[in-house]
Amino acid sequence: MKTLTPKANEIDRQWWVVDAAGKPLGRICTEIARILRGKHKPIYTPHLDTGDFVVVLNASQVRLTGNKADQKTYFRHSGYMGKEKHIPFKTLLARRPEQVIELAVKGMMPKNALGRQMRKKLKVYAGDTHPHQGQQPRPLEI
Questions:
Q1: How many CB atoms lie within 10 A of CB 4?
Q2: Nearest CA-CA partner of 101 in 63, 48, 141
Q3: How far, rounded to the nearest angstrom, does the alpha carbon of residue 136 sit from its chain's CA centroid?
Q4: Distance between CA 49 and CA 32 in Å, rounded?
Q5: Using CA atoms, how far apart are residues 119 and 72, in angstroms rounded to an integer?
Q6: Tens digits of pLDDT across the chain (142 residues)
Q7: 16, 23, 97, 117: which could join 126 in a potential S-S bond, CB 3.0 to 4.6 Å?
Q8: Looking at beta carbons, which pairs linking 106-111 to residues 24 or more positions away fall under 8 Å?
Q9: What pTM, to 2 d.p., does this model score?
Q10: Does domain 14-65+97-139 have CATH number 3.90.1180.10?
Q11: Would you list the domain boundaries of the chain?
Q12: Taking the CA atoms of the chain, what radius of gyration do you get in angstroms?
């Protein structure tokens, strides 16, 4: 018996669309990360990108449970002393709602070149329209 390793031309990539309106951030992002990595496929291989494309709609309507919406902050540092910034969740959600989902998924993906390649297949939009109708994405129920 030989181990099957899929080749690049054998990987069939699907398009999925997720509606994030009113759903918890972590529940959505774990499913998105699973689809991007390809763990839902029988040909999953940890060292290859076997995942699918994911389109996320209504990113501005995602929610957090409990008091996290008031307490959660995002950390950023420029590299200079004293130049660290803490951005509250509500501020980031108002300014760039796409980044909230992108950062959550980024934390669940591998921290290497393969993870960066997988994250390029994530398309996040604040509203309920997207320019990927030609790919005929299927709805992903979460």
A1: 9
A2: 63
A3: 19
A4: 14
A5: 23
A6: 888 889 889 999 999 999 999 999 999 999 999 999 999 999 999 999 999 999 999 999 999 999 999 999 999 999 999 999 999 999 999 999 999 999 999 999 999 999 999 999 999 999 999 999 999 999 998 8
A7: 97
A8: 108/29, 108/30, 108/33, 109/33, 109/36, 109/37, 110/37
A9: 0.92
A10: yes
A11: 14-65+97-139
A12: 17
Stretch (H or E) spanning 30: helix 25-37
The secondary structure of 79-136, three-state, reads CCCCCEEEEEHHHHHHHCHHHHHHHHHHCCCCCCHHHHHHHCCEEECCCCCCCCHHHC
Q: Which two tokens stand for residue 105?
A: 């998924």
- Nearest Cα residue to 135 out of 50, 53, 36, 32: 53
